[in-house]
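Batch manifest, entry 17 of 40.
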Amino acid sequence: GTPAAEIEDPTPHEVILERFNRLVKVIETTAHEYNQGELHTVVPALIEGTSKKNDAVLLGKSPKNQTVHAPIPEGYSIDQLVGKIVDVNVDVAKTWYLSGSVVGEPR
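Output type: structure tokens
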């Protein structure tokens, strides 16, 4: 509803697309490098549920809001773990998530 909303953008679509793609590349590179810092560390994760792709894999969030995956530990069900914090030993650090195995007991 501002006057600026009525101004037509003279930037060609190709330029907009090229700028967007450059920005996406920077974000992907930065996210991947940042997640590498968690590799081979133990990260606490608040469990939210299971992975969309695999019901046997926990989905949680780290204190830094990183997505964390780990297989559901033997002897536990997802219902017992949702809302709990588990420690995950990170052995894979991808661009958009961390993955590893649960160590210790949920709390």
